[in-house]
Amino acid sequence: MAEQEEDFSSLPLTDRWVHKVWKVRKQAYEDGAKQFEKTPDEHDPAFRPFLQDPSLFKSAVADSNVAAQQEGIAALCAFLKFGGREGCLRTRGQAITPILEKGLSSTRAATKASSLEALLLFIELDVPGPVIEDVLPILSAKQPKVIAAALAALTQIFHNYGCKTADPKPVLKALPKVFGHADKNVRAEATNLTVEFYRWLRDAMKPMIWNELKPAQQTDLEAQFEKIRSEPAPKQERLLRSQQEAKARAPVGGGDEYDEGEEEAEEPAEIDAFDLAEPQDVLKAVPASFHDNIASSKWKDRKEALEGLFALLNVPRIKDGDFNEINRAFAKSMKDANIAVVIQAAQCLEALAKGLRKAYGKYRSVVMQPILERLKEKKATVTDALGAALDAVFMSTSLSECLEDITAYMIHKNPQVKEGTAKFLIRCLRTTRDVPAKPEINTMVESAKKLLAESTETLRASGAEILGTIMKIIGERGMNAHLEGLDDIRKNKIKEFFETAEVKAKERPKPIIGKTPAPAAGPPKRLMGGKKAPAGAKKPAAAAPPAAKEEPLAPQPTSRPAPAGGKLGMPKPSGLGGLKPPAKRALAGPGTMASPRRPPSAAPPVMDDEEPEYAAPPPQPKLGMGRGGLAGRSLAKPAAPAAAPVAPSSPGPSSGLMALERAELEELRAANDRLTKLVEESRHERVKLMSEIQELKNQNAGLIEDHTRDVLSIKAKETQLVRARSDAEAAESTNERLRRELERLKRALGKAEAMGMHMQHDDPRSPAGSVPSPSQDDVGIFRDGSERGGYGSGSNGRNRISYASTHSEEKENGDDHRAPPYSRNKMMSPELRYANSGTSSGRGSPARGFRREAGDGESVGVRPKYSSGASNYASLERPTSSAPAAGQGVESWKRAAEVTSQLKARIEQMKAKQGLSR
């Protein structure tokens, strides 16, 4: 094992960096971090392999072994910390995605901390935009822990760098989707990020996300916001490398000056809803009938037109366009006789000015004078609306642009207009961030003094307040000259307003004048430090003549110490006394004989041009100019002639080369500016494309959800269709069964009717003497012969049954029409069986209408015996009277008729139900 470790350590760092053994990789990461920490600057060769192959850090950050991954991310942090901006730009595209996917969500706390520090270093060395662009796609990852870690990283980014350095708009657009995530940890991190945004943006962030959140989430966020509302405004905790350099350069003029500038810069950089919102094109939505309605003779039409326009203009940000006609309509509405129209026009104008901001400045001349003229109204609702409109117009312009109209209306004949204009000027002085120029201050002071002589108390108070506010801006010392000639009462009133006034503009000349000695003390340090290095480089040049040819190769170092040498050499004029000897001039070469005469006069401009290049203060050119005068004085005092040739020798060759180099430097700067602009444009284009991609992804997700919903709906419809089909099949089977039953009943009815028709005719086998009476045809069903005997007559009598008994028994007992006649005869009543079995039917009573002929010897009321083949009652005689037999026959007929009618009614009902017509 020891030999293998020695072999591994003998391998180059880049080979060990990607070795298959994780311990070797881990050791390589540690060695790389140590090498980076020991480098003297960012140009050290130790960085070169990683600059040439940035994918080395991609494999290190995404190492499969967690221990090696921890050291790999730590090595990346060391590389970024000591490698500078170039290392950041080379490795950012390779390392950020693995950090977001595997580093931030690691189980090791050290890995998480190093991953977050790497992201913060990527931002510190360049700008936050590219890092945030790479983080946003991770919010759509599949694993909730990766999304939660990315949100936590965004929270730390905005906590350290703030919303002024890092643009919050792309993240705010993605927040509503994250709030709808199923994982509670993701929603918790989204809440933390939103609270962090609220620390910086306050209520300006709400229009971006608030309407897309659930009411419960809004309630929770409001509770979190309430806890931090009382906190002071947050400050940027971590500066970009460019900001650090600017801060390092600022103390040259004094640390207080930078602090003041920083405080001043923090105030106006406040972010509001306008900065976060996307511009909306409202011109396309303006109805075509707007101009016709606004010119209508009916005030309600004019008011309704303005109300509809206000609904369109009431948005955080409006896309610039041609609003000339609309502003002319506003100006005309200011003169409207109806104050409701005036108020609505003022509200529309305020919304348009706030939506356009600086772009609205070109319409100021159209609307400001009509608004100021309308201030003559005494109603507070009108003056408040007009004042808000004037404030919105002022925010889109400046005090200098509005001052002419303001001073003109401060001498208006109407006191109401004077008072409203004076209050508007006071609000302008409080909100402006630019200190007015002296002529503007004089104009405002003169107008305010005129108000002090007014007879109305409110106008005098307004004039005193104007003067007190101006005093707050320019200071008491600057205001004393303007207060001369005023009595003590007015001066005291002005000072009272001075003490209570709150302004945003700050007078800059005083701090700058007080700090002028500091820059004078600063440059000598640089000059002293700059002289020592080139002075040592010139000594070998003076000793050896061939070195004079190499001297022009470093013109800039030699040109800088020249004024410094003059500065330091003032007590030693002997250093400049060597200007007369021509020996040193000959050393510069034959081609430069004429150049030493020109540089003395041309040297000061060269120094002036060169000074800005090194960011030196203005006193330095004066020192260079004074060098010539000192040289004149130093000729009288010879001392140290050896140092004399060094100073004059440099201007000759360096001036020509410096001019060439300056031209080349200007070209390079121009090319650098062009490239910088191209880079910025491409970056903005990339941001725009990324936002479009994100929007398309959101649209795609919405379409997928709609498709899934449609598929589920289709499946539900198919299920309903299958059920309907099964129900239809069941109904068809029921219908078929009922149809068969109906056919059977029809056949049974037909048979019954045929049987009834047959039974109505006379039986041909009956005797001629037996003739039924008309009463028999009307009432009876059967016509029995008077004398029937034998088996045939008995069976015939048994088979002749009534329609009612047959069909009713079939219906009630469920017997089919093909059932044997025995079953039906068996079911017949005994009276019918006995009546059909003898020579006398039992119904041959006078009521039934049977009449016997003269030769018949049988009595009417005596029932004959049954035949031996028809019944077991051979010798049975059943005497019946004619009256009971007639009553039973009528009852049987009525029953049969009733059952028949019931059966027909049921058949008709079934036909109607099945849609059949008889």
From TrEMBL:
One of its GO terms (molecular function) is microtubule plus end polymerase. Residues 232-268, 508-657, 722-895 are annotated as: Disordered. GO terms for biological process: attachment of mitotic spindle microtubules to kinetochore; establishment or maintenance of microtubule cytoskeleton polarity; meiotic centromere clustering; microtubule polymerization; mitotic spindle elongation. It holds the Pfam family XMAP215_CLASP_TOG. Residues 511-547, 632-657 have a biased composition (Low complexity). Keywords: Cytoplasm, Cytoskeleton. This is TOG domain-containing protein. It comes from Pyricularia oryzae (strain 70-15 / ATCC MYA-4617 / FGSC 8958) (Rice blast fungus).
